[in-house]
UniProtKB/TrEMBL annotation:
It comes from the Bacteria. It comes from Pseudothauera nasutitermitis. The gene is anfD. The keyword Nucleotidyltransferase does not apply. Keywords: ATP-binding, Iron, Iron-sulfur, Metal-binding, Nitrogen fixation, Nucleotide-binding, Oxidoreductase. Its EC number is 1.18.6.1. Its cofactor is [8Fe-7S] cluster. The keyword Secreted does not apply. This is Nitrogenase protein alpha chain.
Length: 524
């Protein structure tokens, strides 16, 4: 068994079973780390809790809803605005967060009265919003507040309102994945089937496990609509509360993130007979195969093929450009859950990089199995790592870039390893054909950034070249560039025709007019 023991974790011998190094000829049964288990005391986990998994990951992307947490204000603050779950109603769910702000006195005497008061106040403050989700937290779960009874009482007193209750306190599972399960099952038990949707197509789907990070959902639904498919609901990115009540009338559930939303798909199949089809919106080949599968299900393969051919013809040359410049670069793929296997194979095959490590904070054995299987020999797989283990892994692997969340990403920058945000993206969306090229561009920029090169200088002891500050200028000149790039027609056009920053700017961004002296430029 190729277990890997971190030096920093030798005082916690159980941690040895949570990291493995994929050896030569290893099958999956002998090189899987343990996963989705209770956090080992003393390991200082960076996991999220079950409440976080329910509210922050699944619930909050729902756009036309007042999301209120019944508990201390810190729980709400910690799950507010740290992901870019955008929506087409002016991002209501990102602008506002609501909490009952439970104090010590409420723990002693009960907080049901406080909850009702807050619900009523929230509806009155936003009279156009008639839908609400209430999230249980550890504190109010422990004192036994009956949230369901309060919600029912308010709905009777305020006709036209509808409230969904999610009982998912932080201790409801070993990680945030436990919260994913809780809210999936609660939604189908309480709300699915309570509203009849309007059907406008012969091909109707629920798009499940999609959270519209920086517009991912909009990219994918555009493909579906071009195929003539009606997207009945999106669970839950840019999703409407009432649309999601009508999920039972879809012909097919198209599942993107299996780790967070397979539960509701399986229940919809069991209760309503709706089949489940797993897809992947990341990478040219996985996306093309996914669109073909959906087309095959509905018998409209030619529509899918037309989109695929059009998009690949447009974007393949750009992806190939980045692949040549990223080939052989080492990557640590350290996301939360399913992206470790959504991305592992695709970035190696289509971008030329080498994945030297995968990890997950809340994934199950199935996630790690798929992730490890898509990595090469020598890859380090870690379950539920902490900061010290992450630093040790970076020192050992010496990657060129890591894809991870903000907390470990900021830690990596301190040891001069650039990172891309795997959860909320840097410059997304990353789904779709164009999005995949955008992802490659972000990787290229992270690795080759002149600013990052400057960050490697230790100003306390290194001799500083006065020309270092002009690195960017040299990048757009002929000096020091490889011959194949120096001969580039596009570069010659830029460096030969445009001899000033302002002229180059006007060529690149004509929509932003240059200000005249004494005036300010205003973007139309």
């Amino acid at each position: 068994m190729p277990y890997h023991e971190f030096e920093v974790s030798k005082v916690i011998p159980e941690r040895k079973q949570h990291a493995v190094m994929k050896g030569a000829g290893e099958d999956l049964t002998s090189c899987l780390p343990l996963g989705y288990l209770n956090t080992i005391p003393g390991s200082i986990s960076e996991r999220g809790c079950a409440y976080c998994g329910a509210k922050h990951v699944i619930g909050t992307p729902m756009k036309d809803v007042i999301h209120i947490s019944h508990g201390p204000v810190g729980c709400t603050y910690d799950t507010w605005q740290t992901k870019r779950y955008i929506s087409d109603n002016d991002n209501f769910q990102l602008k506002y967060t609501f909490a009952t702000d439970v104090k010590e006195k409420h723990i002693v005497f009960g907080a049901e009265k406080l909850l009702k008061q807050n619900i009523v106040e929230a509806f009155k403050a936003f009279p156009d919003t008639k839908r609400m989700t209430i999230y249980q937290t550890c504190a109010t779960a422990l004192i036994g507040d009956d949230i369901d009874a309060i919600a029912q009482e308010v709905m009777e007193e305020m006709p036209g309102t509808d409230i969904f209750v999610c009982n998912s306190p932080g201790f409801a599972g070993p990680s945030q994945s436990g919260g994913h399960h809780k809210i999936n099952i609660a939604w189908i038990n309480q709300k699915v089937g309570t509203l009849e949707p309007e059907i406008t197509s012969d091909y109707v789907i629920n798009y499940v496990g999609e959270y519209n990070i920086q517009g991912d959902q909009e990219v994918m639904t555009d493909y579906f609509k071009r195929m003539g498919i009606q997207v009945l609901s999106t669970f839950t990115g840019n999703g409407s509360y009432d649309d999601l009540r009508g999920m039972h009338r879809a012909h097919l559930n198209v599942l993107e993130c299996a780790r967070s939303a397979e539960y509701i798909c399986d229940e919809l199949r069991e209760r309503y007979g709706i089949p489940r089809l797993d897809i992947d919106g990341f990478g040219f080949k996985p996306l093309a195969d996914s669109l073909r599968k959906i087309g095959l299900f509905f018998g409209i393969e030619e529509r899918a093929e037309a989109i695929i051919q059009e998009e690949i013809a447009r974007w393949q040359p750009e992806l190939d450009w980045y692949k040549e410049r990223l080939r052989g670069k080492k990557v640590c793929l350290w996301p939360g859950g399913s992206k470790l296997w959504h991305w592992a194979h695709a970035i190696q095959e289509e971008m030329g990089v080498k994945v030297v490590s995968v990890y997950t904070k809340f994934g199950h054995q199935g996630d790690m199995e798929k992730g490890v299987s898509r990595c090469g020999e020598g890859a380090l797989a870690i379950d539920d790592p902490n900061e010290l283990e992450g630093l040790e892994a970076l020192d050992m692997l010496k990657p060129d870039v890591i894809f991870t969340g903000k907390r470990p990403g900021e830690m990596a920058k301190k040891v001069n390893v650039p990172y891309l945000n795997a959860h909320a993206y840097h410059n997304g969306p990353y789904k779709g054909f164009e999005g995949w090229v955008r992802f490659a561009r972000d990787i290229y920029n992270a690795i080759h950034s002149p600013i990052h090169k400057l960050s490697l200088i230790d100003i306390s002891k290194d001799e500083i070249d006065a020309g270092k500050g002009f690195q960017t200028r040299r990048m757009i000149s002929d000096e020091g560039l490889p011959e194949e790039i120096r001969k580039s027609t596009e570069l010659r056009e830029y460096t030969g025709k445009y001899d000033s920053v302002s002229a180059l700017r006007e060529k690149t961004y004509p929509e932003f007019p240059r200000a005249e002296a004494g005036t300010e430029a205003v973007a139309e």
